[in-house]
Amino acid sequence: MHIYDEKNNRWVSHRDTAEYKLRKRKLRDYWTVGLITILPFTPAIQITALMLALFVSLSYLDETPYRL
């Protein structure tokens, strides 16, 4: 997905925006805490939690509109 930058008259990838980079850093921190949190649980619960976290992470990064 690209966003049009009217100020510089060019298209910018949403991955190059400051907002995307901030969300990516937040997700890294959430994943670290989440992985440490699920360690004592059984493998079935761990896999389920990981699949849910993966879905939420991808939705959080890619489905939200970005601003320049």
Kindly describe this structure.
Helix content is 60%, strand content 12%. The chain has two helices and two strands, in the order ββαα. It has helices spanning 18-38, 43-62; strands at residues 2-5, 10-13. Strands 1-2 form a two-stranded antiparallel sheet. α1 runs antiparallel to α2 (43-62). The two termini are 13 Å apart.
How would you characterize the largest beta sheet?
2 strands, antiparallel
Structural class: mainly alpha
Please count the helical segments.
2
Give the low-confidence spans. none
Helical content (DSSP H or I, runs of 4+): 55-70%
What is the rounded Rg? 16 Å
Mean pLDDT: 87
How far apart are the termini?
A: 13 Å
Main sheet: which strands, in order across? Answer: 1-2
Order of helices and strands: EEHH
Shape: elongated
- Count of extended strands: 2
Strand content: 5-15%
Brief sketch in words of this structure:
With 68 residues, this protein is mainly alpha-helical. The chain contains two helices and two strands, in the order ββαα. A two-stranded antiparallel sheet has the order 1-2.
